[in-house]
């Protein structure tokens, strides 16, 4: 027995969903994930028929509360739920410049789906199934195209459109040339095919096609076409298309019509749409568009959080932490914070790292916090806070080495360079300068006492050069490095002259004579970073010797 036969043996509906998901797993992984999320819902129905009209989150909660789900089964159901949410709203999980790896998510989802299928088979036959996972030779694509092009089947037209759109998205990720529609040059044929199909489906009244065709047209620069696109989206919203409702609600917010936005989100909330529930909860929490109701806000946000929506999970953490609309509970607050962080929601990851740093999370060490902060350096909104946090963690070490001081100085300079002084509501600049004074003064004291370390090839001197005499970091590291490189390569200066000049630039007033020569005998090309930076890969070690990847050091 193979895995397809196993799924069919459990039930025809689960067999169809698993087979279709597997067929599209390599060519359209995001589409595949949506089928597997539906499989999770059907799995819950198999355990209790009365749950068919409920949403997946409610089904999981009911089964768990009635001891019908083991910890393992709950885990697999939540994986399918979470990955399905990511396929629907990838923008909520990673910054715009990064893309979700749907292929990896599909592999994970297929594994969880098989675990659920195995459980149902064991219930049905009272034995553990023995089967093999076979490579699927399928003509699903040909069947889909036949259904769309020849049979004019509306659902097949929609599926084919989704397939070509996902293919266009994947090609765009790899492209360097983008056209007016936002897609890459190599993706144009596929997106044009997708739009052609969506238009056909929209004209036939297929709700998702109306939304997909509308959203494509609405994002064009042509104002006349934009209006046509929005008309299609409004029609889809009238048919309770959840993404269309969200689009219209966001547009209403942009148009300063918060009352209408709330009305739209109420429709989305009735449909158990997690994002709509979360947005509506936030509006009730702040009194935007109508009355303020903390308890109703908490109920809506709780519902969205149970659906696995990470923003709602993070907001629920805040509500439990502050006791707003809910009974204050540090335990429940941390539980929801952890769930949101596990879904890579940046705000939650940062707060979770703070909790770890303060020793408030069991079975987590300071190294776990460092790992999270390092990852958040890739987020524009968190680069200042995370780099400052990393510097403070180093500052708190008992036996701090010169290399540690250099890394901390590097993080502080990154923090200072990215701080927007006009919008520094968290007083990051003051904290950065206070920490810089401690770190850099300690580094300079060591250099004054012992001189530069020849094994560090001037990296310790560079670190000090990035701060002025008052320990304030330079605002443009690359420009400062370029200045230092010119000093090193200056033909008119003798080795001793270069040494003296570097020491002045580093604000180091005294260095033992026996150590001064270390500056002279080092390779004069060590600091030629400005000339060589373009040749360094972003994931390679930075040539400044900080120990960080180039993208997290001079590549910023």
Describe the structure.
The protein has helices at residues 3-10, 12-23, 29-47, 56-65, 71-88, 102-125, 140-149, 154-173, 188-203, 207-218, 223-238, 242-254, 258-270, 274-286, 294-306, 310-322, 330-342, 346-357, 366-376, 383-395, 402-418, 428-450, 459-465, 477-488, 495-505, 513-521, 529-532. By secondary structure, it is mostly helical. The protein folds into three domains: 3-125, Four Helix Bundle (Hemerythrin (Met), subunit A); 145-326, Tetratricopeptide repeat domain (Serine Threonine Protein Phosphatase 5, Tetratricopeptide repeat), CATH 1.25.40; 377-527, no CATH class. Helix 18 (346-357) packs antiparallel against helix 19 (366-376). The longest helix is centred in the first third of the chain and has 24 residues, at 102-125. The chain starts with a helix and ends in a 24-residue tail after the last helix. Residues 521-535 have low confidence and may be disordered.
* DSSP helical segment count: 27
Kindly identify the CATH topology of the largest domain: Serine Threonine Protein Phosphatase 5, Tetratricopeptide repeat
Number of domains: 3
Q: What series of H and E elements makes up the topology?
A: HHHHHHHHHHHHHHHHHHHHHHHHHHH
Derived from helix and strand composition plus strand pairing, the structural class reads mainly alpha
CATH top level label of the largest domain: Mainly Alpha
Overall pLDDT score = 86
- Give the N-terminus to C-terminus distance in angstroms: 54 Å
Number of E-state strands: 0
Rounded radius of gyration (Å): 29 Å
Residue share in helix: 55-70%
Strand proportion: under 5%
Largest sheet: none
What characteristic shape results from the CA principal axes?
A: globular
Can you tell me the CATH architecture of the largest domain? Alpha Horseshoe
